[in-house]
Amino acid sequence: MASSSGDARHSLTTPVFLLKTYEMLERCPTHVAGWTDNGEAFVVRSKIDFETKVLPVYFKHRNFHSFVRQLNIYGFKKARLESSDVSPSWEFQHPKFRRGAKRGLNQIQRRTTTTMPEPETRIENSHEVAALRLKLAHLREHLANLNADIERVAHLVVRKRERELQIQRRRAAPTDIVMTSFLDQVDWNLET
To answer: Which of these, 34, 45, 128, 166, is most buried using a 10 Å CB contact count?
Structure first.
């Protein structure tokens, strides 16, 4: 019973974000996120699954970048790890945030001053912006191709309608010729 009151006091002084993050790592499927082997950091292995399946269970959002901003507020360091998969892994580390050291979480304080993002964060963001710009350029090119296809199809439809009208006129033309010839004969016969 004494340990439960100690846990209650501990949770009152520890930021809820840190408690939820710690609890999340303890329960998260390891293919999505978990502690490193030495327990001194944690890794997000599948950003998409982390956003869609894990974050909403523990937080009011499912935005990975919001989660990272919160970590930064508490002084966590971030490193993007290259992995053999298509998607990269993300490692986060704080000297007082370790596996098996839940009681030490109350020593982690929120930063009070706003600081500039770390250089690696700016570089990472610039890479993300460049990737988004490239994707946007591809989408614009694809849109231009679709518009050109639509114009070609519209032109083909117009040409087809013109041909159909010509065919209708040609079909009507022989009867017009017969009628004109007949009327010419009638006029000629009347004059004689």
So the answer is: 45
